[in-house]
């Protein structure tokens, strides 16, 4: 077990493609770190550089207190689970798991002990004499994990280990991996493009974009205080809504009306003509179900919902709207980067399951302004997070950060609706559950 | 009706077609076997089965007059073919591995050259080779045949094996390296076992090519020091100069067919495809 330290790591391929750019990262001993990003962001390359299957162009990689840049994979004492498991088809499950020990010339008796222990842990006992070809996907996955844990490796590396499993099995194996890691307490680096895996498994999540680290933070911090448009759009499902707004003084003119941010969320808007407002679907609500105590923290606007998806515990409503051409182009570009395609500009609104708003009719929707982020459309920077950081109210990248600026705001009237009750400290409590 | 099941009519036609093909392919073999058991006087009778079944022809080539000619030729053929096959498979394994795995300049050149060599007609090389071998002392020696045989077997071996190696997922090797193997260990413990069916297939093809060669065999040898069986058959003589050695040739042909048949039967089980199934996701 050891800490892994990456310092200014770069990867440039022979054809000049710069896959990983100046990545610096400290992974503490026993920590579970997730590398996440859309395809082609360099996450797998980074993992393969850690394990030694890919040369490091420049920078320094340390495992424990040793520089390992020049070491071959076999000398780094790491174990890896490959995306397609890479089991040895000519060997039985037992021999597959024993393979690293056999290479290390471990005595037979110890091999047997350790393989049995690993197979107990992974419930592979009745399959030990079978060949990988006769196993199901989940069983193969467990064999691959067995091969990884049988050795006392310094760290585990996972390269999208669950992407070949069906949805149900993926959920189970995710919990299994989490349990195993907590039990063994081994430093783990896990690559995925699935943000659910990223949010649920990791102590810390590293978001990569085109080989550059965007943000390193706890899942909660990433969700609540994304540092830029990319992270905001990538983390969360359905994704964050982005609404363009023109700035006049300190009021924001949006397609849904004139809004003013509460003092807890104020940012310096001078110098910006247009900004993007980001709001998670759950920051919205059916105005009729919002309690009076929190109503004044937001705005109510009328919009026509064209489609509603009812999921039982909540429902998603889709509100199409017109956005200026350049903003639309920019959002489309962002979507493309996130491996999806924007067909139209629309709001995705999470409504309470009890809400009875019918499709296709104008409805009153409430938006909690305390949970709105302001983004600079050019740089993509989250102005709210930087403003909060300056005021010391949020501490980005701190695990325990709860300071998301949602404090009672007895400031100037910020709502279009008449305020009914005085400000209260009620939190809206819709933050994602932590793993 | 099940889609996978052929209708009765179709099935019958397949049987008929199959029988026709088998008869077409095996009738000459059966004819040779029958000839080998005939007495010289029986040879011209044009009847399929011998009137008297005799072992004279076999006796002749294995113990009688033709013994020297045949047995030494058999020894040469077996030795030369096995050595050529062995060298060819070992060289081709390494070459194919490099071609399948490594990125190096001239990779395509090697493959195209190999193909070009294979396409080149043997008969056009044999005369210059004859002169060259005479000058450098390789004429009528085992190496003098092994080297040309390599030129026949290597191209096809490299092509078949590199196709096999390409099927083996690269991750397996990387997994082995992460598990603590050196490149050589990863090759020996993971790649070679997986490539075994490919290696056996290639070995058998190479052996057949070497075993069946006639042009090099007859042109580059002059004595029983190196003359292989196909060439030796041409030197059989009858009991008198007016008698054709048909029976002896037939018997020798049967004898040289036997190792080939045994080889195929032996390795039939090793030539199983789909061994890599289960290495990666199903």
Automatic annotation (TrEMBL), chain A:
InterPro entries: AAA+_ATPase, ABC_transporter-like_ATP-bd, ABC_transporter-like_CS, ABC_transpr_MalK-like, ABC_transpr_MalK/UgpC-like, Mo/tungstate-bd_C_term_dom, NA-bd_OB-fold, OB_MalK-like. This is sn-glycerol-3-phosphate ABC transporter ATP-binding protein UgpC. Residues 4-235 form the ABC transporter domain. GO terms for molecular function: ABC-type transporter activity; ATP binding; ATP hydrolysis activity. Residues 414-435 have a biased composition (Polar residues). GO terms for cellular component: ATP-binding cassette (ABC) transporter complex, substrate-binding subunit-containing. Residues 389-435 are annotated as: Disordered. GO terms for biological process: carbohydrate transport. PROSITE patterns: ABC_TRANSPORTER_1, ABC_TRANSPORTER_2. It holds the Pfam family ABC_tran. The keyword Kinase does not apply. Keywords: ATP-binding, Cell membrane, Membrane, Nucleotide-binding, Translocase, Transport. Gene3D superfamilies: 2.40.50.100, Nucleic acid-binding proteins (2.40.50.140), P-loop containing nucleotide triphosphate hydrolases (3.40.50.300). It comes from the Bacteria.
Automatic annotation (TrEMBL), chain B:
It is a multi-pass membrane protein. The keyword Membrane applies. GO terms for cellular component: plasma membrane. Keywords: Cell membrane, Membrane, Transmembrane, Transmembrane helix, Transport. One of its GO terms (biological process) is transmembrane transport. Residues 74-267 form the ABC transmembrane type-1 domain. The keyword Transmembrane applies. Its main location: membrane. The chain crosses the membrane at residues 12-33, 78-97, 109-133, 145-165, 190-211, 248-267. InterPro entries: BP-dep_ABC_trans_perm, MetI-like, MetI-like_sf. It is found in: Cell membrane. It comes from the Bacteria. Gene3D superfamilies: MetI-like (1.10.3720.10). PANTHER family: INNER MEMBRANE ABC TRANSPORTER PERMEASE PROTEIN YCJP (PTHR32243:SF18), MALTOSE TRANSPORT SYSTEM PERMEASE-RELATED (PTHR32243). Belongs to the binding-protein-dependent transport system permease family. This is Carbohydrate ABC transporter permease. It comes from Jiangella ureilytica.
